[in-house]
Structures are given as structure tokens and as C-alpha cells.
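Please check this today:
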Amino acid sequence: MDMRVDRELVRRLRLDKSWSQEKLADEAGVSLRTVQRVEADGVAAHRSCRAIAEALGVEPAEIRQGGKSSPYQAEQVPKSLVIASPWQFALLRTGQALAVSVLWLLMAFVALNAFIVLIGGIFFWEYAEIPDLTAPQAAGGGILTAGVLALFFFGLRWMYRTLKRTKIVRAGAGELAVE
């Protein structure tokens, strides 16, 4: 069943992200012809409407004809930074990529350390030759340390996901500036 879509809003949101129609089609998982039809005729299947809205970062109701959107809402992309200067845009995109990479490496390092500490506590007890240290104490220390590292890991994971989802958009880029 086809539904009416606010074609101008879809086009404006796409251009705010500096995306071509092909990029929107790839991000939404629909065909290029579907995106062209939405922007030309304002008609889309329910599944296509949901996919395009998700790719643009809005609710499907906002892009439907007669939806809850206002002209002010259409200009702002959720969880995005709108940058006017091309140099700031390039610097922020590079910084975002670098920060995401560093956080990924930290998460891998913390996960590996948690595993080593958890397993290492048992081996430590066997070879430490500390007279008052029992096996449960050594294992408990390893479990406690691994738990603290797990909490640190989940904090890093939250920062990683938040930073990765933040969109950095070059304002006024038009059709030529495609990510």
C-alpha cells in the first residue's frame, strides 16, 4: 500500500546530510528508483517510508504527508553537528574517526585484560607461594577485578556508540558534497 510522503522534507533532510540520492538509497536499503519516486511524486510503500525515515534520523510520521513535522524540525537533523566551515567539517570528521578508533582499541584492550585477570587469578594462587592466600581468595580477586574492568568496558562502549552515531553535517553543501 502506497502512502503520501512530504517530498520536500525528504529532499531537505537528504541535502542537510549532504547526501546524494544514491547515498540515501544505500543507507535506507532501498533502490535508487524508490528515492527518486519519493522526491518526485511523494509516494512510497510503508516499508520504504520507514527505511528512508530511519536513514534520515526522523520518525516515519514526520515525513508522511500531513505528519507532525514543522519547517523548523525539518532543518535540524537529530544527534548532529551542523558545521559551516569546510575546514572545521574536515577536522571534526577526522577527529571523530580517530576517537572512534581509539575507543575501539581501548575496548579490545580492556576486554582482553578482563579475561587475563579472571583466568590469571587462579594461576597466580598456584605459583605465588603466598602462605595465607587461598584459591577462593585468588579467584575472588580475579573476578572482582574483571567486574571492574567490565564496567569500564561498558562505559567505553557507550561512549563509542554515542560518538559513532553523531552525524557531522556540512551546512549548505548542496548536491556536490557527498560523504
Remarks:
- Residues 78 and 110 are 31 Å apart (CA to CA).
- Residues 86-128 form the longest helix (43 residues).
- DSSP finds eight helices and four strands in the chain.
- Helices lie at 7-16, 21-28, 32-41, 46-56, 60-63, 71-75, 86-128, 135-165.
